[in-house]
Amino acid sequence: MNAADHVSTKQAMVAFPRGFCAGVRRAVDAVEAALLRFPPPIYCYNEIVHNRQVVDRLTEKGVVFVLDLDEVPRGGVVLFSAHGVTPQLRDDARQRGLTVIDATCPFVAKVHAEVRQFARDAHTIVLIGKRGHEEVVGVAGEAPDHVIVVQDSDEARVVDVPDPSRVAVLMQTTLSQSEAGLVLDVLRERFPTLKTPSTSDICYATTNRQEAVRQLAEEVELVLVLGARNSANTNRLVEVARKSGTRAELLPDLETLTSMDFDGVSRVGVTAGASTPESFLEEVMAALAVQGFDPVSLSPVAEESVTFALPPPLRP
User: Fold this and answer.
1) Distance (Å, whole) CA 125 – CA 164
2) Alpha helices by DSSP H, the chain
3) Within a 13 Å sphere around the CA of 189, how many CA atoms are in the beta-carbon half?
4) For residues 180 and 153, is the Cβ–Cβ distance under 8 A?
5) Is the pLDDT of residue 3 over 80?
6) Which residue, 133, 159, 183, 269, could crosslink 216 as a Cys pair with Cβ 3.0–4.6 Å?
7) 3-state class of 74 per DSSP?
8) 199-227: per-residue pLDDT in tens?
């Protein structure tokens, strides 16, 4: 038997960039810092990020996740998630005397500021995004009388605005570039004077992870996207991979992996949504190794060096 006989014909190819983005890392670090700074319990409005492993780990450390500020006792400490919240919720927190730690991603906060500016200039703001998503709810809440949410090209073709000459467009930060581009094309055709932000609202990390999974899909028969089912950016990664013509599956937990069919798969691609911890990817890679898949790291699509300071109440 020669050396070649020992080489596996099955490979698990790992995309890069993947996993935590700067905004998610800041939010998770903010919770960890709050646990050290304030006596328990610490409350968090909504999931700090859309990932069950992260939420479960923080719950074990004493974080209480709530869906209503009424669940937070007066004078308590509450964190706002990376997705952001409405101004009304901020006001409610102040009126209840809560210590607020705002972990809104700075890129999401940028969109909030853009809404306020366009609304002051009397524009109708078409917000491209998923209706009901926490980020979209928070952004639209900045100027509810000025914001209209559209989810796709079909809605963009029929959206009705008071003054077609005063329309601006903003986007949910976790959309796919191609998805948002189609909607934007429709709006530009309908509203020639359409105002856009000076820089794209779609996060750099979203764009990088989508390009990485697009390239990954060209190399494999199956793409596994690690992340929560309610994570917008994770679902976009699945969609991008499938549009490349490759089978792609969302993997929220190891149990899902055990029931997955790998017949005929010699090369599996692995990536992770922006709210998925690296520890989960390591567990998945170990499970794939048991099934005979050797790890292969692909060349980075982009280098990421963005970092954000902790929210003001937690800074030294």
Assistant:
1) 11
2) 22-37, 52-60, 87-95, 106-120, 134-140, 153-158, 177-190, 204-217, 232-243, 254-258, 278-290
3) 11
4) no
5) no
6) 269
7) coil
8) 899 999 999 999 999 999 999 999 999 99
- Asked if residue 142 lies in contact with residue 115, where contact means CB atoms within 8 angstroms, the answer is yes
Which of 113, 111, 178, 122 lies closest to 149 in space, CA to CA?
A: 111
Q: What is the mean pLDDT of the chain?
A: 95
pLDDT value of position 177: 85
- The answer, as to whether pTM is greater than 0.85, is yes
Q: Is the link from the previous residue into 312 a cis peptide, with omega within 30 of 0?
A: no
Cβ pair 176, 201 in contact under 8 A: no
Paired tokens of 203 = 């996060």
Specify whether the CB–CB gap between 223 and 217 falls below 8 A. yes
Domains and CATH numbers, the chain: 3-20+204-297 (3.40.1010.20), 22-105 (3.40.50.11270), 107-190 (3.40.1010.20)
d(CA 139, CA 131): 11
265-299, pLDDT tens digit by residue?
999 999 999 999 999 999 999 999 999 999 999 99
Question: Residue 249 contacts by C-beta under 8 Å, 6 or more apart in sequence?
Answer: 222, 223, 224, 225, 238, 256, 260
User: At CA 21, angle to CA 106 and CA 176, rounded to 5?
Assistant: 85
Which tens digit of pLDDT belongs to each residue from 134-185? 999 999 999 999 999 999 999 999 999 999 999 999 999 999 888 899 999 9
Q: What local confidence, expressed as pLDDT, does residue 8 receive?
A: 57
Known catalytic residues are 135
Residue 128 backbone dihedrals phi, psi, to 5 degrees = -80, 120
Question: Can you give the pLDDT at residue 66?
Answer: 97
Q: Which two tokens stand for residue 126?
A: 């078409």
Give me the residue label for tokens 């903010």: 30
Strand order in the sheet with 247-251: 247-251, 222-226, 267-272, 11-14, 294-297
